[in-house]
Amino acid sequence: MRMEINPSYEHMRDFIVALPERFDHEGTLIYDDRNIIKKFDVAGETVVVKRYRRPLFVQRVAYTFFRKGKARRAYHNAARLLQLGVSTPVNIAYLETRSNGLLEYGYLVTGVDDNPPIRDRLEGPKPFDRRLAEAFAGYAVQLHEKGVLHDDLNCSNVQFDDRGEEGFAFSVIDINRMHFTEGWPPLEECLENITRFTYKEDLFDLVAKTYIKLRGMGQAELDLLYKVKRRHNASRVRKKRMKQVKRWLRGR
To answer: What pLDDT, in 10s, does the model give residues 144-154?
Structure first.
């Protein structure tokens, strides 16, 4: 078993060590799909525990010997984000279990952020919230300026707090896939990064134009962003078709 605990939460050690035995039959279920997320009360504090699904055999080998597992990456990414002044639930601990010498499950323990995702106001059935969309574009600029590239920057992984005339405060979740640069990342990496958050054309158009404007750029960069977006959308369509073919083949 591999484990790391934030020194500020050493008082939760007994709970964290016992997670593999307690997780299945304790806690309040929040999410159950590929991964499972639950809330627990620990010594008068509420924490969130995410158990990542058991990797495939090849992935288990890779995560054991060649690269960090998802829980471990998310724990360290949270620490880096908080150091940079980017809001995300505080990293409390990660724990990895092993079976036959290979990684089996990863557990990530964090603080709680009950703010809603921007998806609720940007991708719902009603006209999207233009004020929030423009604020999100500004937030993306701030992330990139700090050298932060969240590799799954979609509308479900950015949460917001509407503070009225003071504007919006944002935070990010699901942070096991991200990377950091010293200063601004290369422009095309930044543009690729913000193509992921939506497939609504009108919403993307507003965010794209606001992002380019806030960065002091012009039509050439905006045209490049649309080019990157078209390429990203085409790749997504190909991946969807491949998945459909695989399902069809399995059903034969």
So the answer is: 999 999 999 99
